[in-house]
Amino acid sequence: MFLALYTSCVIICVGLLIYSIVFQIINKRLQVMLCTECRQCMAVCPLLSKGCNPMEIMLGAKIDQLDQVMGQGGALCVSCKKCQKACPRGLAPFEEVEKWKNLNLE
């Protein structure tokens, strides 16, 4: 009985994880999932003092609260690409900002 319950819980958790990954890939947010929040992008952002935080942009995109992050200064991003150069994985927070801007212009 306990083994069946444990097995079903594991299967449900793995299923939810797979669903989450597939959902992110379909919505072209794979880079958001790959962000390890190492904060290296923050060290090079020229607009960090004005409220533009590349790590917060990635976090906001990861938890579907990008609108809130953009309101707090993320929209100031000028796509200088310094964050992408500093990122050990080559991720680009400015691309999330561009997607957000394009969605809000339509």
UniProtKB/TrEMBL annotation:
| InterPro entries listed in its UniProt record | 4Fe4S_Fe-S-bd, 4Fe4S_Fe_S_CS
Molecular function (GO) terms for this protein are: iron-sulfur cluster binding; metal ion binding
List the Pfam families: Fer4_8
Q: Which residues form the 4Fe-4S ferredoxin-type domain?
A: 67-97
Please tell me whether the keyword Transmembrane is annotated for this protein: yes
Keywords, ordered alphabetically:
Iron, Iron-sulfur, Membrane, Metal-binding, Transmembrane, Transmembrane helix
Residues annotated as transmembrane: 6-26
Indicate what this protein is called per its UniProt record. Answer: 4Fe-4S ferredoxin domain protein
